[in-house]
Design a protein that fits this description.
- By secondary structure, the chain is of the alpha+beta class.
- The chain is built from 3 helices and 5 strands; from the N terminus they run ββαβααββ.
- The longest helix has 7 residues.
- The relative contact order is 0.31.
Length: 106
């Protein structure tokens, strides 16, 4: 089963097992990762599951699609590797993925 490492703004790390086909957001909520609010439940209708994909993983995760880019306009402190965690689907190729949680959500 793929693993995701969540790194909080204070540097605290949490490793979670993430089933293929699930999203980064679903795994954050299931594992009570602080800082991921996911107010819309994964419908790409808010920006409260914003994360920064670690630079080493950015290319493999890929770029956001147009709808996600529009929602990122509402996120706090957007960076080049910003993604909405509800839009990042886990696969075996993403085993070891590292994402950073911003200090606050939008």
């Amino acid at each position: 089963m793929p693993k995701i490492t969540f790194v909080s703004a204070d540097g605290t790390r949490a490793d979670v097992d993430a089933p293929s086909g699930s999203t980064v957001m679903e795994n954050a909520i299931k594992n009570m990762i602080p800082g991921i609010e996911a107010e819309c439940g994964g419908a790409c209708a808010c920006a409260t599951c914003h994360v920064y994909v670690d630079e080493a993983w950015a290319e493999k995760v890929g770029q956001p699609e147009a709808m996600e880019e529009d929602m990122l306009d509402f996120a706090y402190d957007v960076k080049p590797t910003s993604r909405l965690s509800c839009q990042v689907k886990i696969s075996d190729d993403l085993d070891g993925l590292v994402v950073h949680v911003p200090e606050r959500q939008a």
